[in-house]
Specification:
- The chain has about 130 residues and is mainly α.
- Helix content is about 80%, strand content about 0%.
- The chain is built from 5 helices and no strands.
- Helix 4 packs antiparallel against helix 5.
- The longest helix has about 35 residues.
- The radius of gyration is 23 Å and the shape is flat.
- The N and C termini lie far apart (about 60 Å).
Length: about 130
C-alpha cells in the first residue's frame, strides 16, 4: 500500500506533462480536418488562418519583456523565501534541517534576483 503514494505522484507528474500535449494534438488534428474539408469544397482559406497554423503562438506570447522578467523574478524569489521559511519552521522540531533547507532556498532566491536584475537592465535599454 505504501508504494501507491510514489506511483501516484509520478503518475500525476506524467499526466500534467502529457495531457496538454495530447489535447493540443487533438486540436491540431481537428483544425487540419476542417482545413481539408474547406479545400475539398474549393473554399479559399483566409490568410489569418494560414498564418495561425504556420506560427507557434507560444513563441510570440513568451517574448521577453521587462515586466515579464520582473514577474518571474518575484515568483522565484517568493518560492525561495517560502523554502527558507519552511527551513526555519522545521528547525523548531529538527534543528539539523535549518541549514540544508536554507541552502536549497538560496537557488530560487538567486534565480529570482537575476530575473529582477534583468528586468531593470532591459528597462534601461528601451
Amino acid at each position: 500500500m505504501e508504494i501507491l503514494i510514489p506511483i501516484t505522484m509520478f503518475a500525476m507528474i506524467a499526466a500534467i506533462v502529457i495531457a496538454p500535449r495530447y489535447f493540443k494534438s487533438q486540436e491540431r488534428m481537428k483544425m487540419a480536418e476542417t482545413l481539408r474539408a474547406a479545400i475539398d469544397k474549393g473554399q479559399p482559406l483566409p490568410l489569418e488562418m494560414i498564418e495561425a497554423m504556420s506560427s507557434d503562438t507560444r513563441v510570440a506570447a513568451a517574448a521577453a519583456s521587462p515586466q515579464r522578467d520582473l514577474r518571474t523574478g518575484i515568483i522565484w524569489t517568493g518560492v525561495g523565501v517560502g523554502l527558507a521559511s519552511l527551513g526555519l519552521a522545521m528547525s523548531f522540531e529538527e534543528p539539523d534541517m535549518t541549514y540544508p533547507l536554507l541552502g536549497l532556498a538560496a537557488f530560487p532566491i538567486f534565480i529570482g534576483l537575476a530575473f529582477i536584475l534583468i528586468s531593470f537592465l532591459n528597462k534601461s535599454r528601451d
